[in-house]
Amino acid sequence: xxxxxxxxxxxxxxxxxxxxxxxxxxxxxxxxxxxxxxxxxxxxxxxxxxxxxxxxxxxxxxxxxxxxxxxxxxxxxxxxxxxxxxxxxxxxxxxxxxxxxxxxxxxxxxxxxxxxxxxxxxxxxxxxxxxxxxxxxxxxxxxxxxxxxxxxxxxxxxxxxxxxxxxxxxxxxxxxxxxxxxxxxxxxxxxxxxxxxxxxxxxxxxxxxxxxxxxxxxxxxxx
Length: 223
Fold this sequence. Notes:
By secondary structure, the chain is α+β, with helices and mostly antiparallel strands. It has helices spanning 6-9, 53-56, 99-127, 155-158, 163-170, 174-184, 190-200, 217-220; strands at residues 15-20, 23-28, 60-64, 71-75, 131-133, 136-140, 143-147, 151-153. The chain has one domain (3-210). A hairpin with a 6-residue loop joins β3 and β4. The N and C termini lie close together (11 Å).
């Protein structure tokens, strides 16, 4: 996830940091169990109040050719949403991107720019020692599920920083992202609510054939 969306996500999706080979990244916790997404109902529809930007731009995303920095617009042709015979065109008659696709491209470019700023902010938190393990256990269906590999903002450590280190963080998104993650931890109870909703649902349609979200292009490409 990126910093521009945390203000809307914080009350609905528990935010966390995950560690990869290149460092820490900001993410949203969508399930206490691997291989399942509690925010998706049995009929394939999104159950949350906020849809992360990475899902809204699907099946489009930006990618880089090997050993190149230039970003190119990519589409997942295996998604089942692309047709050669029906739907809105990807290109105009003159070969230019269709207006709707151009809007998605602009949205993705905005997300990518914000992703870079978010990454710098998260790097700043990590370098200051403000990211700590989050030993999370969630009670569900009479058992306690332990969630592994997630991290949280360490507010206690923040109070021990020097004035110089604190001011360096204040000049970026770092503290906003850190506190957003901290506040979002209160929404962890949403998984119990989502589990109950899913139990009450009947899979009327296959998730493979039904779009999980319903909104127009103008709604899709806004934070």
